[in-house]
């Protein structure tokens, strides 16, 4: 029994020295990010195993309205347009500065007023 304890102690000593040498030789120390992450592995496995349900034509029934073409507009009556066009052509054209038929032409008044002082200065 003593020999087995001694051999176990020697084996543990050798292993610890080898690990110490390995740690001295490498620049990086093992961190938690290198170790396997159980939650991440489980999540990735579930993502890979996920199957989407196939789409059916009836899936959109509750979300999309059915298309119905709008009613065509009513056309205006042709006789009405003809009467309106004739009334427009029969109208008398009024031009500013001209007297209407049967009226005397009005004299245009000059609404611009100048001060008397300015007129006197302009004469000099």
Q: Can you give a write-up of this model?
A:
The chain is mainly α and 124 residues long. The protein contains four helices and no strands. The longest helix is centred in the first third of the chain and has 24 residues, at 2-25. The radius of gyration is 53 Å and the shape is elongated.
**Which percent bin holds the helix content?**
40-55%
The secondary-structure element order is: HHHH
Number of strands: 0
Question: Radius of gyration, Cα only, in angstroms?
Answer: 53 Å
> Can you tell me the residue ranges where pLDDT is under 50 for at least 5 consecutive residues?
none
Mean pLDDT: 76
The number of helical segments is: 4
Shape summary: elongated
Distance between the termini: 143 Å
Largest sheet: none
Strand-pairing-aware structural class: mainly alpha
Strand content: under 5%
List keywords for this structure.
single chain; 124 residues; elongated; mainly alpha; 4 helices
Provide a short characterization of the protein structure.
This protein is 46% helix and 0% strand. The chain has helices at residues 2-25, 38-49, 78-90, 116-123.
Topology:
Layout: H1 2-25, H2 38-49, H3 78-90, H4 116-123
């Amino acid at each position: 029994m003593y020999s087995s304890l001694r051999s176990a102690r020697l084996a543990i000593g050798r292993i610890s020295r080898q690990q110490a040498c390995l740690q001295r030789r490498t620049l990086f120390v093992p961190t938690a990010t290198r170790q396997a992450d159980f939650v991440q592995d489980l999540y990735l496995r579930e993502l890979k195993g996920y199957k989407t349900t196939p789409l059916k034509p009836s899936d959109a029934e509750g979300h999309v309205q059915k298309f119905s073409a709008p009613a065509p507009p009513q056309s205006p009556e042709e006789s009405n347009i003809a009467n309106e066009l004739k009334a427009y052509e029969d109208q008398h054209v009024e031009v500013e500065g001209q007297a209407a038929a049967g009226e005397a032409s009005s004299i245009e008044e000059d609404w611009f007023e100048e001060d008397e002082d300015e007129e006197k200065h302009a004469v000099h």
